[in-house]
Amino acid sequence: MPIFAVHYTYTEATVPGRDRHRPQHRAWLAGQAEAGVVLTTGPYTDGSGALLLFRADDAEALEKLLAQDPFAQNGVIDAVRFAEWQPVFGAFAD
Question: What pTM does this model have?
C-alpha cells in the first residue's frame, strides 16, 4: 500500500483551536496508528505545522481519511499538502 507524506500548515491564529481539539486529534491519530494506517506523526518544532506519514490506497482515499481528523473538522489546519512517498532506506522501506 502506498505511503503518503502529509504536511499540515498552522498559523498563530489557530493556536487556541488546536489547543482545544488536540486531545481528540491525537486520539484519532492513535486509532489510525493502531489500525496500521498512520506510520508516524509529529509537529514541527517551530510550530509551523506537522508531518504525518499515512498508508492509503490512493490520493482520494487519503483525502477522505484526512477529512475525519478532528483538526480538519474544526478548521484549525491552515493548509494541507500531501504527496505519495517512496522510502528507499530505513524503517519505512520495503
Answer: 0.94
